[in-house]
Amino acid sequence: MVAISEQKLDQLFKNFRERKVIVLGDLMLDRYIEGTVQRISPEAPVPVVEVANEFVRLGGAANVVYNIRSLGAVPVPVGVVGTDSAGEEIIRLLQSLNIETDSVIIDSSRPTVMKTRIIANNQHVVRADWESRESMTKQIEARVVEEIEKHLRHADALIIEDYNKGLLSKSLIENVIRLALRSNKIITVDPKFDNFLAYQNVTVFKPNRKEIEAALGMHIDSHENLEQACQLLSEKLNTAYILITLGELGMFLYE
């Protein structure tokens, strides 16, 4: 286990302030409906939730944008929303944090990704998702590349947040990484399975254990085969660092 001193941690946070970080990925809205259950519906054997509270939060790549802003850096969100109230809410929430939204592209052909969670008596009862996993059009992809190019010169890093919601195709990933490498930028990736091995030559690759097991077809149950998996993945991706999240066991860094 590697420990970081409080002084070192404080210095890291100070160095991060005012850094410009591009966040490319699937922007989402998380909606929560909270209430209580006192009875079962006469229409079907399901609970009737008496709503007491409702609120929204930035989700997906938009949540990463929020976290970067909270740490004092300057995030630049690049993604797509639909022409709907959820898309408007994402833009409103970002702007309320003084985050520029000029690079959030509006696409009338698809809905904004929104996840609605209904919580009754402090129990998560059901989740409803609004989304399209269809690939973006070539026109939208071209606009995304334009936005990345526009901001790269003055950015310190590029974060790619992939949730398999249609934004990040293999060709878009390759184009964006090529541009960032040409500009000598730090590139970090939070991948999903569909494009797992498309993220070549990045700085930091951050899968979770389930994702790396699925991608490599192996079961990780010890420190030894965790290192073996990282070595194999590093050879496939040519990445500088691999950071695997392990749930309650913490994280594992391979370099």
What does this 3D model show about the protein?
- With 255 residues, the protein is of the alpha/beta class.
- It has a domain of 146 residues: 3-Layer(aba) Sandwich (UDP-N-acetylmuramoyl-L-alanine:D-glutamate ligase), CATH 3.40.1190.
- It is 33% helix and 32% strand.
- The strands form two sheets. It has an eight-stranded mixed sheet, with helices on both faces. Strands 3-2-6-7 form a four-stranded mixed sheet.
- Helix 4 runs parallel beside helix 5.
- The chain is globular.
- The relative contact order is 0.13.
- The model has no long low-confidence stretch (mean pLDDT 94).
Defining key terms:
UDP-N-acetylmuramoyl-L-alanine:D-glutamate ligase, 255 residues, single chain, alpha/beta
